[in-house]
Design brief:
single chain, 508 residues, alpha/beta, Glycerol-3-phosphate (1)-acyltransferase, two-stranded antiparallel sheet
């Protein structure tokens, strides 16, 4: 199942990074927690990225779905019974308590669990209210580990970051945060009622800490607009630092971009809370600048990377890469990739169009894409492989007759049918992957071609835009360098439950 998850995620994302593996505890069970903005994509990505045998809690209604139920069982998922999903509330609670006890005991023995404390998937930019289930499980695990004299279990927050999780061939990053510092477990008392009160207080405090950790790990903001602004500002800072150091401006990896966004968010919120007068003017300048670039259909990278005198060389290189990618795509790779993958892709598209008209939730759009593709694509590959095998090897086939008119081509008609079927079944996904890689190069070279064309046409006031952007970048760097931010040598991670910006401090 893990191989399937890795294969699907390597296809779904064009860039995928896993960062900070060194934060992994060396002993004791682990509960991984993450926010849940992307339906089935979230657990599949984490199942593909996190080491060791991983159990996942999922609401029990998902297990009743024909294909999805089998998949999540194979992936190590366990049913969680929510009273809101059942007519028999008391029975659901009883089953849920049994499951929580079983999972807690497993963690105490060194097991690993993936949990989404929000309890549901969503499309909001901020973390939803965390449910108490994670804290309840951890309390069971801690007590069980103490009783058995086992290593102390840990809660490890995981940051999930997507350029667009619902869109095919976007970028993603999985960032492992440091384990949470949990308060001492409540002492056992003889009075059952008092024990429940003490336990409830511990669970409430840990749940609040979990929610805050999820916000920190996901760079949670109040709106997607704020996230977008931070992302754009991060791009400007990255480019300006390269210019100031005399380095060539390059596009950072997605993981580097996420870290840059984390630093900028922490610094920005520090100044917003403590010295808002210093950034109000900068905020307005940034918004106006980015709005102007959007109107021109250019990016901060286009502005920063523009050479003083854009020659013909860069344009010709981009043109060559475009022709090179196109030539290979129009060869053996693309026709077979088209035959093997375009019909099921279009069928998947029509299915999703129909589901969208029916009002499918945006948060599970990517999930449904993957789910329907896993059904449609294998069926089509089998059909296409059988059809081509028959067309080439059936003696009454026009293609068979045509090939046998030439002594060399006639060898194709002597291939074992079973072997040909197997080769074709392997070739469809291989050609599809090659095609996607070539297509990515084609898109990148097309963007580069457009960029060089814009530079050479000189239709925009590039000098003014560069001056304006460098001013913004310089001010952001100046403000950032005056602070101790995440990633700096002097930085120490905030206490569990505290946000980054509350731990930011001015340099002496």
């Amino acid at each position: 199942m893990r191989r399937l998850s890795r294969s699907l995620m390597s296809v779904w994302f064009r860039e995928l990074d896993v960062v900070d593996n060194e934060n992994m505890p060396q002993e004791g069970g682990i509960m991984y927690i993450a926010w849940h903005p992307s339906g089935l994509i979230d657990p599949m990505l984490l199942h593909a990225s996190l080491p060791g045998k991983l159990s996942i809690l999922a609401k029990h209604t998902l297990f009743k779905m024909p294909l999805l139920g089998r998949l999540i069982r194979a992936g190590g998922a366990l049913p969680i019974y929510r009273s809101s999903d059942s007519d028999d509330v008391e029975e659901s609670r009883r089953k849920n308590q049994m499951m929580l006890k079983e999972v807690g005991d497993e963690i105490s023995r060194g097991g690993r669990l993936l949990l989404f404390p929000e309890g549901k998937t969503h499309t909001e930019s901020k973390v939803n209210t965390a449910k108490s289930g994670a804290a309840r499980i951890m309390l069971i695990a801690l007590r069980s580990a103490k009783l058995q004299n086992k290593a102390t279990p840990n809660i490890v927050p995981v940051g999930l970051h997507y350029s667009n999780s619902q869109k095919f061939r976007e970028r993603g990053a999985v960032i492992l945060e440091r384990p949470m510092q949990l308060p001492a477990i409540p002492e056992d008392v003889d009075d059952e009622t008092e024990q429940k009160i003490i336990d409830k207080e511990w669970i409430s405090n840990v749940t609040n800490s979990i929610e805050n950790e999820l916000k920190r790990a996901s760079l949670s903001k109040t709106s997607w607009e704020e996230r977008r602004l931070i992302w754009q500002a991060r791009s400007v800072v990255h480019a300006e630092r390269a210019i100031q150091s005399g380095e060539k401006i390059r596009r950072p990896s997605f993981a580097e971009s996420v870290m840059g966004a984390r630093r900028l968010r922490a610094g920005w919120e520090y100044y917003s809370a403590n010295k808002p007068e210093q950034i109000d003017s900068l905020l307005n300048k940034s918004k106006q600048h980015f709005a102007e670039l959007e109107q021109m259909d250019i990016t901060p990278f286009d502005v920063a990377a523009k050479p003083k005198k854009p020659g013909i060389g860069g344009y010709l290189v981009a043109l060559f890469m475009w022709f090179w990618s196109a030539a290979w795509m129009l060869g053996l790779v693309t026709w077979s990739a088209v035959l093997g993958n375009v019909p099921p892709y279009q069928a998947n598209y029509l299915t999703m169009w129909h589901l969208r008209r029916k009002g499918i939730a945006e948060s599970i759009y990517g999930t449904m894409k993957i789910g329907t593709a896993m059904i449609i694509i294998p069926i089509w590959w089998i059909f296409a492989s059988v059809s081509i095998t028959v067309i080439f090897l059936a003696k009454n086939s026009p293609i068979f007759i045509l090939l046998n008119k030439h002594w060399l081509l006639a060898y194709f008609t002597q291939i074992n049918p079973i072997l040909m079927f197997i080769v074709l079944m392997i070739w469809w996904p291989v050609s599809g992957k090659l095609h996607m890689n070539l297509y990515s190069r084609l898109v990148r070279s097309k963007r580069s071609l457009t960029r060089w064309s814009n530079w050479r046409k000189n239709q925009h006031d590039w000098d003014r835009l560069q001056k304006q952007q460098r001013e913004i970048g310089g001010l952001l760097i100046k403000l950032g360098d005056s602070l101790i931010l995440p990633g700096d040598l002097e930085w120490s991670e905030p206490k569990t439950g505290e946000d980054d910006f509350k731990h930011v401090s001015l340099r002496q």
